[in-house]
Amino acid sequence: MKKKVLIIALSAVLILVCTLVYTGVIQINGIAALKYEIRGVDVSAYQGEIDWEVLSKENIDFAFIKATEGSTHVDEYFEKNLVNAKKTRLKIGAYHFFSFESAGETQAQNFIKNVGEEMPLPVIDVEYYGKFNKKNSDVPAIKKELRVMVEILKDYYGQTPIIYATKASKNEILGDDFDDCFLWLRSVYFPVNNKNGWTFWQYSNRGRLKGYSGREKYIDLNVFRGTRTEFERMFVFAC
User: What is the mean pLDDT of the segment spanning 186-209?
Assistant: First the structure.
């Protein structure tokens, strides 16, 4: 009887902890992320209308805003987000979700057309999605088109893009072939290994801040690994 009660009690505790983690009350990586002074968010249409004046006061220093995806898609809130975010003290970057089904050249053109010359720091988001996983992705072809996009953005904006990656896409797609790009690594359940050479770390997808009212109640939280001077230098060409 005592053993049964103990099992029930432990199960209840486990369910409670999992619920608190899922809802963002408990941030698994929160303690590990505290060592980094410079913090930020990334947003897309999921956050809906953003009051950038309010969000910018939520102990953050930077924001990456979704701009484009593939060869034709544009985030519906990008233009508005960019205009209003630039009115705050935040450092701003724009990111593109990389499609495995489009040419790197047309994806770069989509980004440039919609972001323009007054350049937020460019980011390319590379991760498995939908039907694509390790088993059915043409990695050599993906690498080839990604390199095309990287070089076009580098030539156009005069600075090397950041590449956002999950652990899987970093290990299985990027490898060591894109070490010339800054790495923004996603790891929301475990602290990142500093040997990965990351510059930005997305440590939580369950942040809850003030200033947005979209269908997604959570917001991604990130940190920058480096000094304040290094951080400022990264955005020296950005608006």
Answer: 92
